[in-house]
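pls ignore typos typing on phone
flavin-adenine dinucleotide + seq
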Amino acid sequence: MKPGVKKSLEAIVSPENFSDQLIDLVSYSSDATSRRHRPEAAVWVTDADQVADVLAFCNRERIPVTARGAGTSLAGLSVPVRGGLVMDLCRMNRIVDICIEDRVAVVQPGVVYADLEKALAPHGFFFPPDPASGSVATIGGNVATNAGGMKGAKYGVTKDYVLGLEVVLADGRKVKTGSRCMKSSSGFDLTRLFVGSEGLLGVITEIILKINPRPRHTGTVRAAFDSLASAGQAVSRIMRSGIIPSVLEIIDRNTLIAINQNTDLRLPEAAAILLAEADGFTQEETNAQLEQIIAIFKENHASEVRMAKGPEEAEALWLARKSAGGVLFRLNIALEVEDLAVPLSKVAEALEFISDLAEKYRLRIPTVGHAGDGNLHPGISYDPNDREEVNRVRMAAEELMTKVTELGGTLTGEHGIGLTKAPFMPLEHDDVSLEIMRGLKNYFDPNDILNPGKMGL
Ligand SMILES: Cc1cc2nc3c(=O)[nH]c(=O)nc-3n(C[C@H](O)[C@H](O)[C@H](O)COP(=O)(O)OP(=O)(O)OC[C@H]3O[C@@H](n4cnc5c(N)ncnc54)[C@H](O)[C@@H]3O)c2cc1C
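k done
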């Protein structure tokens, strides 16, 4: 980085909040994928004015800026592929306001999801999206990716809770969108435009969130199925039965085998298991839902059904799902986590396709997913040093994405497009949609400094 540029950035953020040290540049060159590209420098910003001054300067100097929360993206979103500057927002981590009367929380972008949950708990409220990375990922990152989680089927995803934003645009101007109101039909919905925009349209510096009262009771049940078709049928029957489970997760046989090989959980190595949680404000309400779920499991030929008798047993059942992520990352040197979503009626077909694909390309593709909202995570494990295998992974991923769009699905249910899904954008979006997206990017960021090289735009 040129000495003059370094001096100007240090003048804005102070020298201790600027780094061009190799150790920092290497840390900021990757996210949770295997993609890597080193930035030239990093800044830690502490308020919106600094964000504005840094962006205005970088815009004049045409320096790429990649906003960064915890760097846990699973799609290469936070990898600074064009170099330039990484802007770390983790120090903007103040919970500005929790107002139960208005049912809102106002936070800075660097607040960690779990810290907001801790702050809301004494009030009996929660922020439902619940990404599995919640112990480290930031709310700014959640908003920029439209993150979801296990509670998506009943409670929706991040976009369903963002009421308003403060955003700094590429030229340094600040814009406030939305309000603290529970509803609004006022003008174009700029808030929704920024949610899921992956740091390509502006840097989010404050977020107004709707929060929910936390249900007082939960219950958990697990069922094993000897065929993917039966498991898929059970999902479909539950989702049209009139109840909506707070969680409905699927784990396929490949994942169950991998978990058994790496833990002492001794799970049934069935074609798939489904894990369901029901919640309610009374025990009766919760039990009534669980009974209905169990009946549907049995009608659909579940070979084993286990209901947790209390919180400890429930925790033991959930360990299977919670251990899956860590276990899959240990299967091989690299893991490409896909994030497709399909209509609920197509879950079984998608699972069977993935299983056939693994056989066709001689790959291990264990799959877990949020069956209740059709969001599946096939994890393709491979050795990046084996060129022939890498080629098979590429072909399998392309075939999978093509099939997903044929099923009326989407490339990504919650992780975003970033780098890994960018080549597939034309499969899902028609030419006019892509032209509008490019036009928006050009309007907000004519010099293409904000997280350039992403989303295929
Ligand atoms: C083990 C594991 C489990 C995961 N589980 C889930 C899950 O259940 N659900 C889910 O949705 N995701 C999950 N993820 C993916 C990831 O945690 C989410 O995408 C998360 O929302 C990213 O937050 P972050 O703070 O790490 O953001 P980063 O990775 O730092 O950034 C992500 C994107 O947001 C942009 N960004 C960050 N902050 C801002 C800001 N203030 N303004 C503008 N743009 C910004 C970045 O430029 C980048 O494009 C998981 C990841 C891992 C490693």
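The longest helix spans residues 387-406. The chain has a mean pLDDT of 96. more later
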